[in-house]
Amino acid sequence: MVIDLEKTLDQEDKEIKTNPNRRKFLSIATSVTSGVGILFAAIPFISSFQPNKKAKALGVAIKIDVSKLETGSILKVIWRGQPIWVLRRSEAMLKTLQNTNPKLTDPESEMSVQPNFAQNEFRSLKPEFFIVEGICTHLGCAPIEKLTLPSTDMGPGWEGGFYCPCHGSKFDLSGRVFSGFPAPANLRVPPHRYQDENTIIIGESEEVVNV
């Protein structure tokens, strides 16, 4: 069967011209179809502006249970896409921090980032627990913990801390940087508070807390 397309189109065109109702209906139908098409095309574009579940979770405070964290050990978690370390310091570790080390760049943490309550030699709310971002303040590399003593590869007089393998910056057990290395500031301390004796909330901060 062969269809004369030109003849068929001419006939439909004549019907449209002689039937204004049909012409109006086709115009409305075409507009509606175009509108629906634009709407569906825009849905992915509009959706791209909506935060997904992962993005929403990045800004949410997280709870950490430290009841099973052993002395001298580190618990590592992720908050807002950043590595957070919780170090449970021993009495021996704390003693090394009580005397100001003249080799530190910013011993009083005056040029560094931390909550107001953490601007002390321990850089923490409770001396036993040190909460810090595991990111070097030089170029954002990941430092490694050097807690075992003695440590021959860290040089004489090393009392424990953190070491950035990228460019050699060294930090003490409070995350304070030693002079003569590229890192310009101490490791950052994130906002945090204690919900109870064994639960730390990262992402929320209180200036006055009884612990």
Automatic annotation (TrEMBL):
It comes from marine metagenome. It is found in: Cell membrane. PANTHER family: CYTOCHROME B-C1 COMPLEX SUBUNIT RIESKE, MITOCHONDRIAL. NCBIfam families: Rieske_proteo. The keyword Iron-sulfur applies. Its EC number is 7.1.1.8. Component of the ubiquinol-cytochrome c reductase complex (complex III or cytochrome b-c1 complex), which is a respiratory chain that generates an electrochemical potential coupled to ATP synthesis. It holds the Pfam family Rieske. It is a single-pass membrane protein. InterPro entries: Rieske_2Fe-2S, Rieske_2Fe-2S_sf, Rieske_Fe-S_prot, Rieske_Fe-S_prot_C, Ubiq_cytC_Rdtase_Fe-S_su_TAT, Ubiquinol_cyt_c_Rdtase_Fe-S-su. This is Ubiquinol-cytochrome c reductase iron-sulfur subunit. The chain crosses the membrane at residues 25-46. Its main location: membrane. It catalyses: a quinol + 2 Fe(III)-[cytochrome c](out) = a quinone + 2 Fe(II)-[cytochrome c](out) + 2 H(+)(out). Keywords: 2Fe-2S, Cell membrane, Disulfide bond, Electron transport, Iron, Iron-sulfur, Membrane, Metal-binding, Translocase, Transmembrane, Transmembrane helix, Transport. Residues 122-201 form the Rieske domain. The main subunits of complex b-c1 are: cytochrome b, cytochrome c1 and the Rieske protein. GO terms for molecular function: 2 iron, 2 sulfur cluster binding; metal ion binding; quinol-cytochrome-c reductase activity. GO terms for cellular component: plasma membrane. Its cofactor is [2Fe-2S] cluster.
